[in-house]
């Protein structure tokens, strides 16, 4: 890590020369008191453990039933991919693709990319093409819209309960937990200290 670091305040553009920050400390702007830089404590370990948890929850979310529906003696369970397939079969291929990308593909790529960065860092090694993967994670993060998808599921469940018996499956609970775990992993990672290793 360099002894001095030049950082421009993102609020007032005042240029600061900052010494190496100890873990858990934060640098503030002298003019407007905005946060310039935070050196998060134990960033790699916390983010890695949350990312591994996210990978497990992601696997459960895409393997087990999302919802189980019982009506007039009929029983049907559907998975997340089954719901996407149903949308596609009914001619809603645009919505099916949107759900596929925002609820499955982009979160999966984010988890795998984080593991690619964090596992070598945990072993005190520099990941290959580190800057490309840091930029990639920051670019795909806004496209993972699991929160919007979960909100849509909850609204659908509320409406379906009036007509039939709806039982939430293990996938629904793990998907809900996945949203919080991924948010925690994103807030725990210290991209600035990772970027300095490039």
What does the model show?
Helices cover 57% and strands 16% of the residues. It has 7 helices and 7 strands. The strands form 3 sheets. It has a 3-stranded antiparallel β-sheet with strand order 6-5-7. The longest helix is centred in the middle third of the chain and has 30 residues, at 93-122. The termini are close together.
Helix percent band: 55-70%
**Number of distinct beta strands:** 7
Structural class: alpha+beta
Q: What is the domain total for the residues?
A: 2
Average pLDDT, to the nearest integer? 80
Keywords:
single chain, 198 residues, alpha+beta, 2 domains, 3-stranded antiparallel beta sheet, 7 helices, 7 strands, 57% helix
Structure described in brief:
Helices cover 57% and strands 16% of the residues.
Strand-helix topology:
Elements: E1 4-8, E2 15-19, E3 26-28, E4 35-38, H1 43-63, E5 67-71, E6 74-78, H2 80-89, H3 93-122, H4 130-140, H5 146-161, E7 165-168, H6 170-188, H7 191-195
Antiparallel strand pairs: 1-2, 3-4, 5-6, 5-7
Helix pairs in contact: 1-3, 1-6, 2-3, 3-4
């Amino acid at each position: 890590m360099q002894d001095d670091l030049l950082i421009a305040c993102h609020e007032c553009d005042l240029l600061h020369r900052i010494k190496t920050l100890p873990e858990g400390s934060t640098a503030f702007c002298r003019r407007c008191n905005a946060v310039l830089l935070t050196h998060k404590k134990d960033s790699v370990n916390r983010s890695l453990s949350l990312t591994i948890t996210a990978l497990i929850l992601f696997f459960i979310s895409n393997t087990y039933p999302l919802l189980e529906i019982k009506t007039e003696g009929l029983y049907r369970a559907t998975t997340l991919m089954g719901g996407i397939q149903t949308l596609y079969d009914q001619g809603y291929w645009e919505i099916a693709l949107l759900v596929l990308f925002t609820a499955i593909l982009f979160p999966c790529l984010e988890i795998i990319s984080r593991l690619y960065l964090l596992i070598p860092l945990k072993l005190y090694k520099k990941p290959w093409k580190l800057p490309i993967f840091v930029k990639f994670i920051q670019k795909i993060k806004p496209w993972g819209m699991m929160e919007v998808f979960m909100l849509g599921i909850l609204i659908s469940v509320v409406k379906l309960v009036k007509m039939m018996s709806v039982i939430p499956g293990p996938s629904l609970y793990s998907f809900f937990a996945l949203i919080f775990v991924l948010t925690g992993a994103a807030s725990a990672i210290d991209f600035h200290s990772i970027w300095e290793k490039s």
